[in-house]
Design goal:
With 192 residues, the chain is mainly alpha-helical. It is built from 9 helices and no strands. It has helices spanning 7-31, 37-43, 48-54, 58-77, 87-98, 102-109, 118-140, 150-169, 178-188. The chain is elongated and about 55 Å long. The protein starts with 6 loop residues before the first helix and ends with a helix.
Length: 192
């Protein structure tokens, strides 16, 4: 750190480092859900002592990742036009917005990361309810099948967003192609 920087710069640096650790920890846990703190530190290319300075226990880390993931999902869904009249455009736009944070979606979706934190549960429920209500609205206007539960459709979408993120991350699909492939798969299926 440069000499002469004030305490605000130090605070900003620490917060940026904390966010980076959370980002690496999320990626590590998306790939290996039972990773130890040592494995997470190694993945983040930091020492275990540095990790412990920011998060004293695995539970503290999981809770922080959960809050950060929900923050990022909430920021992302602001970009989605829920009043978009075309269902195909709505699904594709949802994929485009959420796919870059697919590892966070996996993290929130997976029971492995359940923190038993009612505050987190309530924030996540608000996000889920927003989509479920939109799916129900689209069922009522005939854009989505009524014989499938809106909750089922939402969780399928959520799951496929993570799978798409993983395929992009693993180099199996180009990011620019993934939203269209996801949309086509969900709305048209596999049968020709």
């Amino acid at each position: 750190m440069k000499e002469g920087l004030g305490s605000m710069s130090k605070t900003a640096y620490k917060e940026e480092k904390r966010k980076k650790i959370l980002e690496y920890a999320t990626q590590c846990l998306a790939e290996k859900p039972n990773a130890s703190l040592n494995e997470i530190a190694q993945y983040a290319q930091i020492g275990i002592a540095t990790l412990h300075r920011y998060f004293s226990t695995r539970e503290d880390l999981i809770t922080a990742i959960s809050y950060r993931a929900l923050e990022l999902v909430n920021e992302a869904i602001i970009e989605i036009n829920f009043s978009e009249p075309n269902i195909r455009t709505f699904i594709k736009q949802t994929a485009e917005v959420l796919m870059p944070i697919g590892d966070r979606i996996f993290f929130l979706f997976s029971e492995v990361f359940n923190t038993e934190n009612s505050d987190l549960d309530n924030i996540e429920k608000e996000i889920i309810d927003k989509f479920i209500e939109e799916f129900k609205r689209r069922q009522n206007i005939g854009q989505l099948r009524k014989d499938l539960k809106a909750e089922w459709m939402f969780y399928i979408l959520y799951s496929v967003i993570f799978i798409s993120w993983k395929e992009i991350h693993d180099g199996n699909i180009a990011y620019k192609d993934a939203p269209e492939q996801l949309t086509t798969t969900l709305l048209d299926g596999f049968i020709k």
